[in-house]
Every structure is written in C-alpha cells, then in structure tokens.
C-alpha cells in the first residue's frame, strides 16, 4: 500500500492519496469516533501497520488524551462507549433481520400455460427492488418490473417462469442472501404475500 | 444537512459550457485551487451532476465526488477532495473535545475554535500559505510534512479574516485530515470577539450521508 502521508507535491499528480478505514470508511485517525473502534483497529493493524503504530501506540494515545480535562475525558469515554453499544446493537439487529427474513420467489399462473414470476422480500437484505428488477430483466431478456402489492410493500414481477433461474442468479450475485432463506413457491394463493412486507 | 443516509439519485451529464462555468467559479472561490484545477476537473473529462435530497447537487467525475452545491450557494468541496488537496481551502481548527460533536452532526460552536486547541485566522493580511494541518507557512500550496515526527499545531490557518457566508474546511486538533466542511454563519473576527454562538452551520462531515453515499 502506498504511503499515505507521502508528500508527493513535486510529482505530476499533486493530489494526496488518503487511506480510508475499511471498516468504518473514515480516515483511520477518526476511527475512534466511529463506534466500531475494535474492528477498525484490527483492520488497520492488518492493512497498514505503520499507521497503526502512529495512531494507536501508547505514546500517541497518551498525547491525545493529555490535552483534555479529566471531566471531558470521562464524558468522551462514556459517549464513545454508548456509541459502540449502539453500533453493536444495530449490527446485531441487522443480522437478526437477515436471518429471519425470506426471499420468496413465486410462480403465478397468468393464462393457462403462461406464467409470471414474482419476487418479494429483497428489501430486508438491503437490496433495491428497482435495481434488481433491471438486472433480472437484463439477465433473462424479459420484462421485469416493480409493482405495489395490495397488502403493502413491493414485489418484482418477471415475465415467464424463471423461478429456478432466479434462485441461482441470486445465490451467485447476492451472497448476503443465505441459500436457506430463498423459498420457491409454486401455486397462487398459498402463502408468502404477507412475508415480503 | 446530510445526517440521514442518502440514496443515490440519477446522474446526468453536465453541459460543457456549464462545466466551464463551474471551473471558473471554483477558481474564483478557491484561488489556491487554481494550480490544481486541471487535475481536479480535466478539460476533457465529462462532469456529472447527481441530484440528492434537499435540493443539493453533487458534482462528480466518474466515481469521484468533487463538489456539492445547495441550490445556488457556493460550491463546497466533498471531504474526499479536501483530503486530496488539503492546503487549498480556507480552514479552521477545532480542539479535540469538539471533534465528537462535529462528527455527530452538531453545529460548530465558537468555544471549540477559540480554546487553545482551536485555530482561527490570525488577521494579518500579508501572510500567505497553504491552509490546513499540512500547509506550511510561506510555502504556497506545498505539502511540506514528510511523515516523520510530531508537528502538532504547526498548521497554518490563514492571515485573512473570513467573512460570514464563506465556505470553510474544519480541521481538528491532533488530526491530519479535515473532518468537516461548511459555511461560516459568523465571521471569524466576530467569533474571536464574542467567543460563543454557532460558527459553522450544518455542512458535510465525516461519516454523514454524503460521505457514505455510494457513487457507482
């Protein structure tokens, strides 16, 4: 990795290249305010040890905290702790929603031997229906649109029976979705429309 | 302004005449940027504009965000650009205690600037130099620090008093990189005299919605 502080003013491109933390995306010196300090530290240690030394060595920490009054230090610490807890909670919550939510791929009969495929429940995995619909349409060369469901929420409607292909496509393209959380539904009025939310 | 996460809007190409206008406007607002303008917005490169909520337009080239603009206010640099050219923007420095408030989106108050850890322009018109923690006194726009040793408090924060409404970059005590960008809601001179009240109104700070915006 290129040295961050390398002052390359004399060379052709004059911009500095700044390293950003891979965990919280802030410049590493601001990681302490990000709420995921532990992870950031580990990341930096692994990826840029010189910088780690500069920021997290004991001298540096001592120098950093010495300028604050004790009271302010305590408050800052408390605040940081609270923030960390919050970040942790948010993470846990997200993991829980991912674990509990399902993507439902449903084959709906449209006209005797013609089918459309609907997909619901992608929002919980942080995917955007509109974008996924576009991708699906491109992939299968069919119409794919986002429609509102009467029960609230949205679903993607893809023309043609492509339920299995969609499953494969999702598994390959969106690793956030665990295989067990994809459900294929065949018939019309069985279940599922409520789960998408 | 960007406390909430922003979902990327649609990008549109900027007309070349508008692009030229933006370039001149930039050089006008940030004179120190003039030597680098060709690197930031190369003449041949297509500038894109992205609309984001609250009537803000974000200008980018390819995937790199450059500037944002609220309606027709001054063009403000995206922090990633500030990090690339830290010495080209008028800056202030806040003390350590204020960092965490700024990073959670609070309005910057005067005490954070007037205390020992903070820095404001000196008020002497004749001084010239590159701004920010990396800007060396007298060496215009040159990054002089070689990455060794402690250089606490050596940053240069300008001789000219900044007026109300001017764009400003906020650095932080003990940090190399800038942490926020905003418009002054109080002139720096007034700030020094009064010593309280809001100074930099809501702008763009590290870790806010604009920072995290994914520009595919």
From TrEMBL, chain A:
<feature type="coiled-coil region">
    <location>
        <begin position="75"/>
        <end position="102"/>
    </location>
</feature>
<comment type="similarity">
    <text>Belongs to the DENR family.</text>
</comment>
<dbReference type="InterPro" id="IPR050318">
    <property type="entry name" value="DENR/SUI1_TIF"/>
</dbReference>
<dbReference type="GO" id="GO:0003729">
    <property type="term" value="F:mRNA binding"/>
</dbReference>
<dbReference type="InterPro" id="IPR005873">
    <property type="entry name" value="DENR_eukaryotes"/>
</dbReference>
<dbReference type="GO" id="GO:0005840">
    <property type="term" value="C:ribosome"/>
</dbReference>
<dbReference type="GO" id="GO:0002188">
    <property type="term" value="P:translation reinitiation"/>
</dbReference>
<protein>
    <recommendedName>
        <fullName>Translation machinery-associated protein 22</fullName>
    </recommendedName>
</protein>
<dbReference type="Pfam" id="PF01253">
    <property type="entry name" value="SUI1"/>
</dbReference>
<keyword id="KW-0175">Coiled coil</keyword>
<keyword id="KW-0963">Cytoplasm</keyword>
<dbReference type="GO" id="GO:0001731">
    <property type="term" value="P:formation of translation preinitiation complex"/>
</dbReference>
<dbReference type="InterPro" id="IPR046447">
    <property type="entry name" value="DENR_C"/>
</dbReference>
<dbReference type="InterPro" id="IPR001950">
    <property type="entry name" value="SUI1"/>
</dbReference>
<dbReference type="InterPro" id="IPR036877">
    <property type="entry name" value="SUI1_dom_sf"/>
</dbReference>
<keyword id="KW-0687">Ribonucleoprotein</keyword>
<feature type="domain" description="SUI1">
    <location>
        <begin position="103"/>
        <end position="174"/>
    </location>
</feature>
<dbReference type="InterPro" id="IPR048517">
    <property type="entry name" value="DENR_N"/>
</dbReference>
<dbReference type="GO" id="GO:0005737">
    <property type="term" value="C:cytoplasm"/>
</dbReference>
<comment type="subunit">
    <text>Interacts with the 40S ribosomal subunit.</text>
</comment>
<keyword id="KW-0689">Ribosomal protein</keyword>
<dbReference type="Pfam" id="PF21023">
    <property type="entry name" value="DENR_N"/>
</dbReference>
UniProtKB/TrEMBL annotation, chain B:
<dbReference type="GO" id="GO:0005829">
    <property type="term" value="C:cytosol"/>
</dbReference>
<dbReference type="Pfam" id="PF17832">
    <property type="entry name" value="Pre-PUA"/>
</dbReference>
<dbReference type="InterPro" id="IPR016437">
    <property type="entry name" value="MCT-1/Tma20"/>
</dbReference>
<comment type="function">
    <text>Involved in translation.</text>
</comment>
<dbReference type="GO" id="GO:0000184">
    <property type="term" value="P:nuclear-transcribed mRNA catabolic process, nonsense-mediated decay"/>
</dbReference>
<dbReference type="InterPro" id="IPR015947">
    <property type="entry name" value="PUA-like_sf"/>
</dbReference>
<dbReference type="GO" id="GO:0003723">
    <property type="term" value="F:RNA binding"/>
</dbReference>
<dbReference type="InterPro" id="IPR041366">
    <property type="entry name" value="Pre-PUA"/>
</dbReference>
<protein>
    <recommendedName>
        <fullName>Translation machinery-associated protein 20</fullName>
    </recommendedName>
</protein>
<keyword id="KW-0963">Cytoplasm</keyword>
<dbReference type="InterPro" id="IPR002478">
    <property type="entry name" value="PUA"/>
</dbReference>
<dbReference type="GO" id="GO:0042254">
    <property type="term" value="P:ribosome biogenesis"/>
</dbReference>
<feature type="domain" description="PUA">
    <location>
        <begin position="90"/>
        <end position="207"/>
    </location>
</feature>
<dbReference type="InterPro" id="IPR004521">
    <property type="entry name" value="Uncharacterised_CHP00451"/>
</dbReference>
<dbReference type="GO" id="GO:0001731">
    <property type="term" value="P:formation of translation preinitiation complex"/>
</dbReference>
<comment type="similarity">
    <text>Belongs to the TMA20 family.</text>
</comment>
